[in-house]
Amino acid sequence: MKLRAKLCLTVALAAGATVAALPAFAEQFGPPTVNQAPPFPVPEKGYEVEGRPGLMHNIPNIEFVTWEAFQAPGITAGLQRRLLSQSPSMDAVAQITYVPAGWTQPAGYDEVDNEIVVLDGDLSIGDEKLTKYSYSYMPAGLQHGATTSRQGAVLLQWYKGAPKFVASATSKAGARAHARVRDWNRYKYTWYVDDPFPAYRQGGNFPGYLHSLMRRDPDTGEMTWMTFVSGIAAPPSDKPGNFGGGAEVHPSFEEYYIPEGTRVATSDERGPTKAKYGGECVEGGVSSYKRGTRGYFWRAAGVAHGTVAQAPPGEKDGDGNLVKGNGEANWGWTLVRTGTRLWATYVTDCTYKTGIEYKQGDWRKYDYDVPRYVPHE
Q1: Pairing between β-strand 330-338 and β-strand 114-121 as defined by DSSP bridges
Q2: Which domains does the chain have, with CATH numbers?
């Protein structure tokens, strides 16, 4: 269904919250020079745009989540999990799964999509041998060989629905064999900015963000990838950054897990705090969420995030010269998922009235007219 200028779409979230797709009314800058809308239909409701359970779900460090028995129909007993999030619309889950040494499960298929990243240890799925930072995607109903672990394993795992396994020698009718991803490993592939990583905004991808694409679903466009970022202390600048001095908006949820990096959260602060620099546009204003290595978060579609709160001014000496930089050196790499192909547009602030387009190395304001989901009670 194509979105039109005055169309209003809603989707139910947990706790009674809903979101609506509403194009902003025109301001004073006119239209963009190039259409900024995603080159695919914008989801209207459900899994692709939802929050878990609200707009933002944040776990600063997975060590703050208690292990529990992971029991599901057909799945061999003995597994433990840390439940990270659960879908309010279809019982899809994100979890850290502990597999004990010697655990085994017969050949068969999952009733829902099963996506796995091995964080440590080993896992074999038939003749597919997975080790640290290996990735495997098994579409619903697609038969695979027996699953075993010789030394045990810790997995980051996503089920696109309530987990259920069926022992079988054959695939279920209609299984998407063409979408299967086997034994992708972080150490086998290089990092890159553009192709083969899809373009995700008009004007070219960020020059400073390195990616390694793990999966782009040939049917739904869903994506899973790794992103590497680093930063050094630097004085404030009047030059706009990757977001043009504003904030980024996506037509899909965005889900993150941070396997490695320099920042580690040591206190279980899952809720938002008032942002001094950067953050998300949520009901309470511009808020930031503490997260670090081994942290996890989920952001619903349509929530602007980025430099909507400005950096504090740098310290100056008596002559007005900056005496030290802003921030600290850091690095990290992140596992990221979206419910559609990744796409980004930009706004100046949390009013969503003025957009910013990237054009020939510069930024230009326009009247934001891209359909998005707006949270309301």
Answers
A1: unpaired
A2: 9-60+189-376 (no CATH), 64-186 (2.60.120.10)
Closest to 94 measured CA to CA, from 116, 76, 78, 74:
116
**What per-residue string of b and e applies to 289-299 under the rule 16 or more CB within 10 Å gives b?**
bbbbbbbbbbb
Count of alpha carbons within 13 angstroms of residue 348, beta-carbon side: 14
Q: Sheet holding 285-288: strands in order across?
A: 273-274, 285-288, 280-282, 305-306, 247-249, 345-347, 354-359, 362-367
Rounded to a whole number, what is the distance in angstroms from the first to the last CA of the chain? 25
**Inter-residue contact 365 to 263 (CB < 8 Å):** no
Give the pairing of strands 153-159 and 114-121: antiparallel
**Which pLDDT band, with edges at 50, 70 and 90, does 324 fall under?**
low
pTM (whole model) above 0.85: yes
DSSP assigned state of 311: P
Is 187 in contact with 220 (CB distance < 8 Å)?
no
What is the pLDDT, as a whole number, of residue 291?
A: 82
